Amino acid sequence: MKVRVQDLLERLRGGPANVRVDRAASRAILGSLSLEQKREPMRLWRVPLWPAIALVLYQVQAGLLAHVGPEVVRFEVAVALVTFSALHLGAIEGALAAFCLGYVADLFVQGPPGLCRFVAVAIWTVVRLVSARLTAPPAVATLGWTLGAAACWQAAVLGGLGLVAGAGNGPGTIAWLSVVPQALVTAIAALPLHAGLVRLERATGGGDPGR
User: Fold this and answer.
1) Dist CA 13 CA 97 (whole Å)
2) What does the alpha-carbon distance between residue 160 and residue 189 come to, in Å, rounded to a whole number?
3) Which CATH architecture best describes the domain 40-205?
4) Treating both helix axes as pointing N-terminal to C-terminal, what angle do 91-108 and 49-68 enclose, rounded to 10 degrees?
C-alpha cells in the first residue's frame, strides 16, 4: 500500500512512476551477466564438453549429408548449442562455450577467419540479455530464440561467404531462400536437443542451471 501511495505521489508531481520497475529490470539484466555466481567456477571444467558435442554432431550430420546430398536443408548445430548456453548455462561458462562453439563452426564454414566466433558470441550476448527480461515456457523460449538466432546466423555466414568470394561468386538465390527453412529445421530439432542437454547439465552440475 505504501508503494502505491508513493507511486501516486510521483505521478502527481510529474516524476517517473516506473523507476522501480526499470531498476528491477536493470538488475535482472545485470544479474544475467553476473560473474559472481557461487557455484559456477566449479563448472568451468565442462566448457570443453559443449564444443565436443558440437564436433560430434557436425561429424554425424556430415556423414548423413554425404548419403542424402548436400542440397538438403541442414541443422545448424552451433546455433542450437549457443542458444542453449545462453538460456541455461552460467555467464562465464556460457560465454566461453559460445566462443568455443563458434571456433568449431569456423572449422566447417569456409568463410572469413573468426566469422562464426564473432556471430556466436554476438548471438549469445543478445539472447542472454533479452531473455533476462522475458518470461516464457522453456519450449517456447527454445523454439523462438533458436529460430531467430538461426536466421541471423545464416544471414551472417552467407554474407561473409559473399565477401570472401567476391562480386558474382557468392552464395546464390537458392542459398538465401533456404535461410528460413533451415532456421525452422534448427528450431524444431533444438527442442529435443535442449531437453537432453538440460538433463546432462543438471547431471554434471549437481543441481539447477546456474543462472
Assistant:
1) 49
2) 25
3) Orthogonal Bundle (1.10)
4) 30
Q: Which residue in the block uniquely carries the three cell numbers 556460457? A: 94
Task: Answer whether residue 17 shows pLDDT above 60.
Answer: no
Q: For 15-21, which contacts have Cβ atoms below 8 Å and span 24 or more sequence positions?
A: none
Residues 111, 153 contacting (CB under 8 angstroms): no
Cα–Cα distance for residue pair 196/56, rounded to 1 Å: 15
pLDDT: is 36 or 118 the higher one? 118
**Is pTM, for the whole model, over 0.85?**
no
Domain boundaries, the chain: 1-32, 40-205
Per-residue pLDDT of 60-79, as tens digits, reads 988 888 887 766 678 999 99
- For cell 556430415, the residue is 62
